[in-house]
Amino acid sequence: MKILRQKEKQSGYLFPDDFNYELKRVNLFDYSFFLNTENNTFEPIACLCCPEKFCMNFKITEFPESYQSFVPTVCPTNAITVLFQLEIDYRLCIGCGLCIIRCPYGAIKINKKGLPEINTLNEKYIRLDLDEFVSNISKVRFTFDINDRNKEKFISLVLSNIRDGKQNTIYPLICNLLTSMRLPTKITRSGDTNDRTDAVIVLDENSIPVEIKSPTETLTIDVKSIRQAIENKIIMLSRNTHNTKYHVTSLVIGFIYPSDRSDVSELIGNINDVWGINIGLFSFETLYELLLKAYYDRIKLDLNKIITLRGKLR
Amino acid sequence: MMDIGNKNFIILENSTKVDSTCIGCPDLPCIYFRDEEYSPNIIEGVPHNKENKICIVDAIRMDDVSGYPGVDNELCILCGLCLQRCPTGAINICFKTQKIVLNHKNSEIFREVSYDKNNIEIISTYDLFLSLPQKYNLKYSPLQSMGIFVNEIENIIKEDSYVENIIIRNFLLVQDLPTIVRVRGDTNFRIELLSKFNSNILISEVDFNQLSLLETPRALLDNIAVLAGRYKICAKRIIPIVFCLSFPNKRTDYYEVISDIYNILNIQIKTISLSLLFILTMYKICLCSLDIIQYFNVNKENYGIISDINKIIPSLNKLELFKYARYFEATK
Fold first, then answer.
1. Most buried residue, A154, A209, B34, B224, by most Cβ within 10 Å?
2. Cβ within 8 Å, pair B265-A234
3. Which chain B residue has its CA at the smallest distance from A277's CA?
4. pTM for this one?
């Protein structure tokens, strides 16, 4: 395949009428490969500078109107920016891996240190003509074939990155993880005494209060978090800050799950026995697993299971 | 007849009046609680603190020289608990000096008689006194003593916050409410205080620190869930109370949260200050003798317990109460 520079383009060359092209990702530690199955050649994809900027922005129109003014940027620290090409400011980057997962073309990979690397324009690699590529996108087959071991390695690398995270990075990170899974989440303003929960998943009839525990505050989800979750639920129901129902869960998201036989699990059971209130738990690891499933295995999150979650997700 | 602030006296059967004096009770009720009081069986197998001393600073002790209990006024913090425990009123507060006085001048009259166990059955003088009806009349306002006491407690709490649990337990015990308090440092059993309250169970969270007071309502919800879920106690029989030192600012959301909990779960968490306990005890009014349902329901419409005090003790000097307003209602 001829190497094309940005200004030179030979239209029709890359996309003849009957071609077989595949964009394949098998490894989060490598870029996606752009395959020409006809010629049996492949090249790693480079960043297309797509107009949507999936690595930076969420698509506002995908969310309900009540959430649209709260849609955050993908990167919790705004480390990824664009001038002439996409760049990552490694002083700000916390290694959360969101941009890597968000890029549908697989032009961002994770390196051994756990930091993202964008494959920007480089003479070694082909750079596709953006307009032609986008207008012919339906002819390209996206294949994701990432094995479980690869996903586990990715997740444990990312988790070790954020293990020292403090509130000001962890809260936006969790908010964006949830939002990436189509659970539109917003962080409540810190001065607002009326809305005392850390974050809210804004669903029209079933808003969910979220208590976020950064790993520096507590590694394992503890009784204190459950107490906060039940108070969050009661306050949301009583003050009607967001539309919700009694049986809708109140979530606690923390680094590590409590053990099944611990006080925490018993307390969640007791709370449900006495008052019928559901307290749900998510570990950071589970959130990443669900995210990878949603993006690479196309397994959609079962919203109904989340809304009435009690304890861990099975 | 007992008067706090004046010399107490006892009227004997032959109508002679004698100054109240120590009668040498064998089990020293002014110094120790009895087993059934501080170790009642409210719930099977619950670990609890077995400290049985009434005085948290060890100011009242048996004086080996005189043979009677004595109060060290250097240590005394004026909580008034030993005063309440003495069946004859031999322990009193001198209101001029605000110090405790323990009288044992005429004690020879009331010394326990030695007896031959096999032949003679003698009713102990102490039990006799306990069975007499007590008439109680406060001549002096207890508010100044209360002010001193609360000040002393504030200082002690800075060194050792666990003391706040013990002092509340001791007040509840003196009020005839069998109570257990959690062992110091126990993180497994999360209920701080459990009391038998008529046919109900009273659970208490104590927090004399303004900042952490906001966490007490959710702690009580945790405790109710455990009592009802693990120990199978009917939730309707559980009365949750927060014991504070002074009432928090209106801005702190504490009052809102109490209202929220009532709105959604129909649970009314009550708030009582240490000062109120002191005053009730001085007037020998027991919490369980009150219609507890109607009192101490602090919430976003009712920021304090001043109206409750005025109903319970109408004779209390309202102007003087105003000086100590922060101990009875939110002042900002």
1. A209
2. yes
3. B265
4. 0.88
